[in-house]
Automatic annotation (TrEMBL):
Residues 1-21 form the signal peptide. The lineage of its organism: Bacteria, Pseudomonadati, Pseudomonadota, Betaproteobacteria, Burkholderiales. Keywords: Hydrolase, Protease, Signal, Thiol protease. Pfam families: NLPC_P60. SUPFAM superfamilies: Cysteine proteinases. This is C40 family peptidase. It comes from Thiobacter aerophilum. The keyword Iron does not apply. The keyword Iron does not apply. InterPro entries: NLP_P60_dom, Papain-like_cys_pep_sf, Peptidase_C40.
Length: 167
């Protein structure tokens, strides 16, 4: 358990750091990502991070029994913001405001085509091109991935922002 809390602190520190000042060769320049600030979005991302390493279970919607992608996202939004989301990634993708990848902020939802159909996977954006999600029975747990990884970059379907301000 201590190792998990040390890893969480390391992740939070990393997310609070600004992006590198100069883009990598061939990469467009973009403004720095904001550091995590107090508020509903921070609560959402911190709670999501606290579930890192939770077991994956298809159809799962609670951390004790395991979580799948939509169960993970739904659990986090319900616990932190009191928002009940639909049970599938495709249905969740119908909610909120559509945003471009350059507009992503921590707490936004990111969607992927992992089953040869649009919006078949969902995760929560953390900042610095990272997102947290309940991946699959193959990986077996909630984990953090990068939008820059070839697998996820090729399958990116879009992003949505759910309004937490009224919560």
């Amino acid at each position: 358990m201590a190792a998990k809390s040390h890893a969480l602190v390391l992740i939070l520190c990393t997310l609070a750091l600004p992006c590198r000042a100069e883009p990598a060769q061939g990469e467009a320049s973009r403004s720095q990502e904001p550091a995590l600030m107090a508020g509903p979005t921070t609560d959402l991302t911190l709670y999501a991070l606290s579930l890192n390493g939770t077991a994956y279970r298809y159809g799962g919607s609670d951390p004790e029994g395991g979580l799948d992608c939509s169960g993970f996202v739904g659990h986090v939004f319900r616990e932190v913001a009191g928002i009940d989301l639909p049970r599938s990634a495709q249905a969740i993708a119908q909610l909120g405001r559509k945003i471009g990848i350059s507009e992503l902020k921590p707490g936004d939802l990111v969607f992927f085509n992992t089953l040869r159909r649009a919006f078949s996977h969902v995760g929560i954006y953390l900042g610095n091109q990272q997102f947290i999600h309940a991946t699959s029975s193959r990986t077996g747990e909630v984990l953090i991935s990068s939008l820059r990884e070839a697998y996820w970059a090729r399958r990116f379907d879009g992003a949505r922002r759910i309004d937490l301000a009224g919560q």
